[in-house]
Amino acid sequence: MTARYVELLALMALGTLYGWYAVSLPWVFVGAMCGAVVWLALDNWRFRRILSWLRAEDWANEPQLPHAWGQLIERVRKLQKSLNGKAKDSQARLDEFLAAIQASPNGVLLLDSQLRIEWANETVAEHLGIDPQRDLMQHVTNLIRDPAFSSYLSKAEFDSEVSIPGAQASAKNPVSVAIRVHPYGKKRKLLLSRDVTAKQQAEAMRRDFVANVSHEIRTPLTVLAGFVETMQTLDLEDADRNHYLGLMAQQAERMQSLVSDLLTLSKLEGSPTPNRQGVVLASELIAKCLADAQGLSEVLAGGSHRITSDVPQDAQLAGSLDELSSALGNLLSNAVRYTPAGGAIKAGFDLLPDGGANLWVTDTGPGIAPEHVPRLTERFYRVDRSRSRETGGTGLGLAIVKHVIQRHGGQVSISSELGAGSTFVLHFPADRVRRFSPRPR
Ligand code: ADP
């Protein structure tokens, strides 16, 4: 600052001297004034240069000016540098924040006070069919035209969510998206979306399952209650009483089988997959299940089925003996129950060239029409409802089989032709199959 005034005084002194020497003593004052005017003009020119530099924001080419103006320029440069650094930091933080929201499995949409789209992540774009670039500043109700969503927005009751069909939804592929709006800031809104298709399907399955179980239990219970009432109200002969008791025992057994299959399913769902340490000898597994099948055939058809097997002696499966017995037992029990008396049933085990193996059961029963085959492993799906019930079926046998084989890393395949019998194959991957090598003597 001092240097600036020294410059002013120097110019005034120069003017004074010039007035004195060049003209005469009275011109001294005029000379000093002229010096001051020159200084003012110079100072104003420096000020204008700084102003135009600030306006142009040309930070790289700052004007080179002396004393106080130079210090001012230096201060502005430092301030600008520090603001620049802060802006860069904020931008980097904002970019990271937006990248995190992009990675979120939930859809995120920011709306301004007029419900126009300010920002959208990829997930919400996919859920609602929005283009995150093209649709910026579009009114959200112009893009999401579902009436349920429009009414949700207009009612502005945002403590609940609304479900609408997703942009990818079609008749074959139902997609359901739940949307919830959270107001924030000055009338702004945060819209969150998530795919609830699987949740809704699971909910529908659960409802169906409970309805099916109730239906399955209600029938035998009604029959049982009817017989109990009959026995309570009527004075029955011994023969009739025994007949009714026999029928009641049948219904109780039916309920027992249902409960037992339900427990098996729930155990399969709730337990960890069988490890590979437990090893089951295929020939023993088949022999044990064939003995049970023979017993069932005695009861249902006087043992008239021809039940045989074809299994290599050295083949082993890595898995759970209980689960594998339950799966094969169900397949063999179905074969016996659905194959008319005198029919043939065979179980076998084939080692495959890729190291895997097939455990199969084939019968000469009535066969299954092709339209039913894909649905047979669904819970409670039955083709022949009355035959299933008459022979003690629960509708859960093949669902258990599918579960067991999936837990062993394999899959079930069914081939059947009406009138020509059926074949059920359980395919095991190579890592579940072993060859038994007897210890050298
Ligand atoms: P269920 O207890 O009724 O036998 P499953 O799940 O074991 O239930 O089988 C589903 C349906 O598949 C059965 O109701 C039956 O209609 C059909 N099915 C299963 N195995 C056979 C078979 N070997 N031959 C003909 N139909 C079969």
Bound molecule kinds, no repeats: adenosine-5'-diphosphate
State the oligomer.
single chain
- Mean of residue pLDDT values: 92
| Main sheet properties | 5 strands, antiparallel
Query: Compute the gyration radius: what is it?
Result: 44 Å
Could you describe the 3D structure shown?
With 441 residues, the protein is of the alpha+beta class. The chain folds into four domains: 97 residues, no CATH class; 92 residues, 2-Layer Sandwich (Beta-Lactamase), CATH 3.30.450.20; 71 residues, Helix Hairpins, CATH 1.10.287.130; 170 residues, Heat Shock Protein 90, CATH 3.30.565. Helix content is 53%, strand content 17%. It has a five-stranded antiparallel sheet, with helices on both faces. A hairpin with a 5-residue loop joins strand 11 and strand 12. Helix 7 runs antiparallel to helix 8. The protein is elongated and about 155 Å long. The model has no long low-confidence stretch (mean pLDDT 92). It binds adenosine-5'-diphosphate. The site of adenosine-5'-diphosphate has 22 residues, from helix 10 and helix 12.
Protein traits:
Beta-Lactamase, 441 residues, five-stranded mixed sheet, alpha+beta, Helix Hairpins, 4 domains, five-stranded antiparallel sheet, binds adenosine-5'-diphosphate, elongated, 12 helices
In brief, what are we looking at here?
The chain has 441 residues and is α+β, with helices and mostly antiparallel strands.
